[in-house]
Amino acid sequence: MRLSDLEAPEGARHSKRRVGRGHGSGRMKTAGRGTKGHKARTGGNNPAFFEGGQLRFSRRLPFIKGFNNTFKRVYALVNVGQLAVFEPASQVTAETLVEKNLMKASAAKGFIKVLGDGDLDRALTVRAHKFSASARAKIEAAGGTVEEIAVQMPAKTKRAKKPANA
What ranges in 101-160 are assigned the alpha helix state H? Predict the structure, then answer.
């Protein structure tokens, strides 16, 4: 037995059916294409995106409402006026805000931003991820301090755009 002696077993290989080649081919009338329908016609092959006549996905996309940005940061908001419930010289953190019912526990697990609506008459140490300029000014004017919690930024990768002046 040599490599050149190897053959496919009898009946394993079939020649391709050549349809639409006239009466002499042995496939008369419908030429082996069945009767009527899209595939019976010339050029009757559907593209990969064809969905049986239903409006295809690529054309439906503009009508699909909404877009969820998975990288969006949602901040729980607290106004300076709401901080009046704290004792003077106390620390305001996410946990103390939940204790005083100024925000839900689920919101306190995320990012917190302090806004400048209202007045503050006591010195407080406020810890949050972000402060508006007016909130920062009002807390410091009352003798308090502002501690900004650092937000970890994702590491720059090779694919990140380089600055124009580099």
Answer: 105-108, 133-141
